[in-house]
C-alpha cells in the first residue's frame, strides 16, 4: 500500500490558496475592520491539533481570532463523536446560536469534525438546525478556504462529507495555542475497528506522514524554542507500517530524540497490541523521551477484550507493563478504561479492578460505555442498568484513588524537573513532570514556558506540591 495515495494533490493545494486570496479580497471590500472568528474544539488532542490548523487558515484568509462569541463574525465548532455527552454539548451550544443568527444574517456558523463525518448527524443538523451555514467532515478540513469563500460569495448552505480513507494535507498554516508546547501529528486514522469505537468510521484508515517531513517540523519547533513536542496519532505504534515505508515508530522516536536542543518528547496514543519491546527499549534509551506511557487497556476481562476486538489479553497487557517498569523503573503509566461494556458482568468488572491494583497506574481516564451508532457494539444486548454501571464506576474510581495516593506519597522528598505551564487557581505555578504529574509550587510567572527543578513537600491524590530548587 502506497502512503502517497493519501496526499492532497498539488493542484488541490494551489486551488485552496486561490480561495484564500479571494476571501481576503472579500474581507478587504466588505468589512470596515478585521472580522473575528471564534473557534471552539471538543474532544481529543488530535481534534485540538486540527483546530490549530483551522485557526491558521482563518488567519491567513484575513480573520482575527477571538475568545468571545459576542463579537465574532464567524463561529466554528470542531466536534467530537467519541461519546454522547460531547455530542449533546454541541447540539446545545449550536441551538443557542439560533437567536444570534436571526439577529445578524451576516453571521456565519460552521460545524466540522468527527460528529459531522457521520451522515445521520449531519442530516440532523441540516434539518433541525437550518441556520447553520457550513457542515464539513474530517476529510476536507484543508478545503476550509473554499467553504468560507462560497459561503461569503454565494450565501448558500454547504454540506461536504466525503467518505473514503481520508487524506493528508501538508503545509497548512497553523496558529499554535502555546509558544512552548506543540502538537505534532505523525499519522491519522485507525485500522483497529474496536467494536465500541467510531473513530475508524469518521477518521478513515491509517495513513502516516513522511518521516522526513515530521523530523523537519520537529527541528523547526525546537529552533523556535518549543520545550515539549507531543507526537499524535490514534495509534502511534502503527506508524509507518506499510512495508515500503522504511521507518517504524521506535525509529522515528530515536531520530527526533537526536535533534539538538533542550526539549521533551511525548506521544499518544499507544495501542497495547502494537506496543513492542523495541519501543519500550527505545523510550528507556532516549533521554528526551518522557518516561510516561499512555497505554489504554479498556478492560481486565479477556472475554470483554475479545468482544471489544482489542487484540490482546489481560496477561499480555500486564506483561508489557512489567517489562516497561523493568527497563524504566521510574515510568509513569496512564490508561483508558470503559466500564459497563455490553454484556459485561460484575465478575468481568472485578478483573478490571484487579488489573488496576496490579499495574499501579498514575492516573486513568475512566468512562461509562457510550453506544455509538454505526459501531458493532451498539447492536449488542446491554442488560446492566445505568445505575449499576454507575456503582461499578465509583468502585473503580475508589480503587484507582488508592493506587494514585500511594504513588504520589512516594514522591515526597524527591526532586523533579518540571515544565512550568501556568498558574493554578490558588496562585501557584503549575509544572508538569516528565511522568505527566502536576506539581504546584510558589514562583514567579516568568517561569512559565521554562524548566524548573522542584522538590516535593506534599502529596495529594492526583497532584503534588513543592518548592522550587535553585537551578545551577
Please tell me about this protein's structure:
The chain is of the alpha/beta class and 472 residues long. The protein folds into three domains: 3-160, 3-Layer(aba) Sandwich (Rossmann fold), CATH 3.40.50; 181-409, tm_1862 like domain (pyruvate-formate lyase- activating enzyme, Alpha-Beta Horseshoe); 415-469, OB fold (Dihydrolipoamide Acetyltransferase, E2P) (Beta Barrel). It contains 14 helices and 19 strands. The strands form five sheets. The chain has a six-stranded parallel beta sheet with strand order 2-1-3-4-5-6, with helices on both faces. A five-stranded mixed barrel has the order 15-16-17-19-18. Helix 2 (45-61) links the parallel strand 1 and strand 2. Helix 1 (10-30) crosses helix 6 (144-154) and helix 9 packs parallel to helix 10. The longest helix has 24 residues, at 386-409. The mean pLDDT is 95.
Low-pLDDT regions: none
CATH architectural label of the largest domain: Alpha-Beta Horseshoe
CATH topology tier name of the largest domain: pyruvate-formate lyase- activating enzyme
The biggest sheet amounts to:
6 strands, parallel
Shape: globular
CATH class of the largest domain: Alpha Beta
Return Rg in Å: 23 Å
Secondary structure elements and their pairing?
Layout: H1 10-30, E1 36-41, H2 45-61, E2 64-65, E3 74-79, H3 84-95, H4 98-103, E4 108-113, H5 119-128, E5 134-136, H6 144-154, E6 158-160, E7 181-185, E8 187-188, H7 199-203, E9 207-208, H8 211-223, E10 228-232, H9 249-257, E11 264-268, H10 277-285, E12 292-294, H11 302-308, H12 314-327, E13 332-339, H13 346-359, E14 363-368, H14 386-409, E15 415-423, E16 429-432, E17 438-441, E18 451-459, E19 464-469
Parallel strand pairs: 1-2, 1-3, 3-4, 4-5, 5-6, 7-10, 10-11, 12-13, 13-14, 17-19
Antiparallel strand pairs: 8-9, 15-16, 15-18, 16-17, 18-19
Helix pairs in contact: 1-6, 9-10, 10-12, 13-14
